[in-house]
Amino acid sequence: MELASSSSSSSSSFLKSKPHFIYDVFINFWGEEMQRKFVSHLHSVLLQAQVKTLINMENLEEGMQLEEHMRAIASSKIAIIVFSKTYTESTCCLRELEKIIECRETFGQIVLPVFYEIDPFDVRHQKDDFRKALEESAQKSYSGEQLEHVLSRWSRALTTAAGINGWDVTDFRHDAELVEVAVSRVQTLLGYEDLSHTEFPVGLESHVEKMVGSIENHSAKVCMVGIWGMGGSGKTTIAKAIYNQIYRQFIGKSFIENVGQVHRHIGLEEELIYQVLKPKFKWKGDWMGRTIVKNELSNKKLLIVLDDVNKFWQLQNVCGNHELFGQGTVIIITTRDVRLLNKLKLDFVYKMDLMNENDSLELLCWHAFRDAKPRKNFNELARKIVTCCGGLPQALVALGSDLYLKTFAPWEPTILPRQIFADYHVLENLEKSFDGLCNYMQRDIFLDVCCFFIGKDRGYVTKILNDCGLRADIGITVLIQRGLIKVERNNKLQMHPLLQDMGREIICRSWPMEPEKRSRLWFHEDVKHVLRNKTGTAATEGLSLKLHSTRDCFKADTFKEMKRLRLLELDHVQLVGDYGYLSEELRWICWKGFPSQYIPDNFRMKNVIAIDLKHSHLQLVWKQAQVLKWLKFLNLSHSKYLRETPDFAGLPSLEQLILKDCPSLCKVHPSIGDLCNILLINLKDCTSLSSLPKEVYKLKSLQTFILSGCLKIDILEEDIVQMKSLITLVSENTAVKQVPCTIVNSKHTGYISLRRFEGLSHNILSSIIRSWMSPIMNSRSYIRPLCIDMENDNLRDLAPLLSCLANIRSILVQCDTQSQLSKQLNTIFVEDGVNFTESTNHSLRFSLIGVGSCNEFLNTVRDSVSKGLESSECCDISLPCENNPYWLGHTGEGHSVSFSVPKDCDIKGMTLCVVYSSTPEIVATECLRSVLIVNYTKCTYQIHKHGTVMSFNDEDWHGIISNLESEDKVEIFVSFGHGLVVKNTTVYFINREPVKTLSQEYERFFCLDWLACIMQPFFLK
């Protein structure tokens, strides 16, 4: 880093940027032989202590430049000033002193004065000979007003330095004692000692590399970052590794572990100040803590790590104001609760994902076998342990260490996880997250999920638990933010197996020997014990018994005392007797293989939200119509004997009716038309159903209608257009001869599956594409992206459908095989003659297309490209395509780009940049015909019409991203007309939108004579 040559300026280029430390200590002095010997001794001992030290060069060598002294000072963490009676005789020393004080005030350089045979009072007030020598030194180089100004600055620097706590040589028996004390103090302040974090850093390097790279990109300011993950996932380990790698770059540093155990604000601030400043003072109150932080830390470049934070107040005083810290300060916060991080203005948050299977196995083996692979005969056991630990590093380390201590005796699989987890406090550590939940409702939601709802749809569970009074819409979000549960593909709730063990352990621990007194019962032996002995109590709120057959039979009166039972899950359980004994508080009934031909009338369900009786023996749902005004979900799938649906008049709240695979179902009650809140009807594989009541078409709330496999249904009425909310219609393998053309004109319908439908011509896809390739843009109406899912082998002519597609924005085509996909793409690109490049004379043009809230991003790119076009000579284009913390780039030659969807990447958006040449009169946005996205992994392709890509919106983006998953192989094609030549196509997956950084990158790469780019950013909500 270049420095200004003069120390008189308080705005040197170095001090405007973050300090770059080269030396640990700079020694400034001037004196006679005795002082020189002292300084030489001090210098020698510092070097022996491996402290990188630079001595005042003018005292050792002649001819060195002042600029080098200034650079050395500003590149040192600590400055030792040795004052003597002759100190002010050196102009160079005084200039260096001024620079030292400037560095202290600007970025917190540590200053340690030594008063060698001179009283600090004399330095502070500059009397007599000391003052006279000062004036003479100034007069050597300055005169007039400049002389007065320099004298004033030097005098101020001397006064400031004399007021800093240091050492007086007269307080020590001899120089060697002072040297020993000074070196010890320097070592304490530097604190060059790595934190101990892990013996076997498997997979650690990649985490540290990503984090350090992101920190470096924010180094021009106070950088605050978060590390979030569940307990035992390695947050502290990675924080320590980052600390060890970068702490030498900082004036002061602090790593405070277990912040969650600090119960008062003052405790955290006191620890922080002690670690950073190493002061010896008596703490006097909260106001003093804030004053010291403000006065002593505000100009220092610090590294602060706050580990395992669980309360926002622990962060508020320390991290609430960036102005408290010097430029270049880095603050790293680790927590299990991402909500705490969301309340702060962090530069980024790093989510600690669990270890993959290979890294898990390696970590276990290093601890168990001191090798990267399992020993012979232990491979199967090691893999079982890995599965049990579920990628949690703490559990892997605990189990591996325990196995190592067993000297490889033949182990029984039964000893595997639980006792070892208890011995090493693995579950106890995880329980901290549960203890941190702020109210009983959140704890109840967690326990309900871990016992009953793993793998269930989030919305489904939310509505059930909301009706239990638990405010699950908020509570589930909190649990996700604290890492206690997660939402995976298809919106299903999941939980780490050890967290599930922890939750169940909490329940069992309350009544270890009396299961009937526990709040939830799920372990089949405990449940059977309670049911057989009729020992149920009002303590039980949830019960699950999953059997493989119906051989076990219990009496209904065993539930008599379970008056608070809300959740009931039974698989293949026979219950005889009076169903009136079952609790009226039931909200969720999930009874697989329900044994009766109908639900008894005395089965009181007035408060039930969801009834799930899959694989039941029902012939009728109930004999007399029931009024269940809260029922939202009715699932009777795979009920082989069910002949007709119930009367729906008493089910006003029903949202989902699922009758999948009910082969005997032949009648749908006309009252289905009264379901004003229905969202989903699934009649898939109801092979005996030959017709639908006309009332079904009056359902204005219905969004999804599935009729696949209803072999006898041969017509869909024109009245279907009355379904104003219908988005998805699936009619595969039916006898339907035609689909009303009005359905594809609907402004809401987004997905129509017509697989094996006999009403489409074999060339309809290419016909649609050709119509979309037309350069005439006359469609501006809005409609959701339409997905037509069909087989190409069984298609007939359906001309009216093609004419109805004028208003469709996009089409998603699902192929059955790679071969079929290749055949259809070949038809599009070869047989239909789609041309992507045409020869023409090119000129300088560019255009930008954006979507969502990306104005600042687009404006930055537009300005940078414009400058490049104005200032450059004719040359080839080079786009930035290397990976960056903010994007992952892929470039292809010509009209297409191939890539794999990034793995485990939180994609905020995707940007497509097309470089092309054109004649001056042609504007690219007027001749972009279409964008085609091919997913080779899923055998799909998605076509966006020319009018659509000019106005991509959130619905379009959701349609695109929903068909892209991690590691999918994808290719994007762009089609132009009117004589454009596509040079190359680049796609960027954007993690966030760093406007300044992007501006710098574009300015660096877009220095060219001709360029035009079409940018299509898509941002997730």
UniProtKB/TrEMBL annotation:
Q: Where is the TIR domain?
A: 21-190
Kindly state a single biological-process term from the GO annotations of this entry.
defense response
Q: Which keywords label this protein? A: Leucine-rich repeat, Repeat
Entries under PROSITE patterns matching the protein: TIR
Which InterPro entries does this one have?
Answer: Apaf_helical (IPR042197), Disease_R_plants (IPR044974), LRR_dom_sf (IPR032675), NB-ARC (IPR002182), P-loop_NTPase (IPR027417), TIR_dom (IPR000157), Toll_tir_struct_dom_sf (IPR035897), WHD_ROQ1-like (IPR058192)
Q: SMART domains this protein is in?
A: TIR (SM00255)
Q: Name one GO molecular function term.
A: ADP binding
Which protein, by its recorded name, is this?
TMV resistance protein N-like
Organism equals Vigna radiata var. radiata
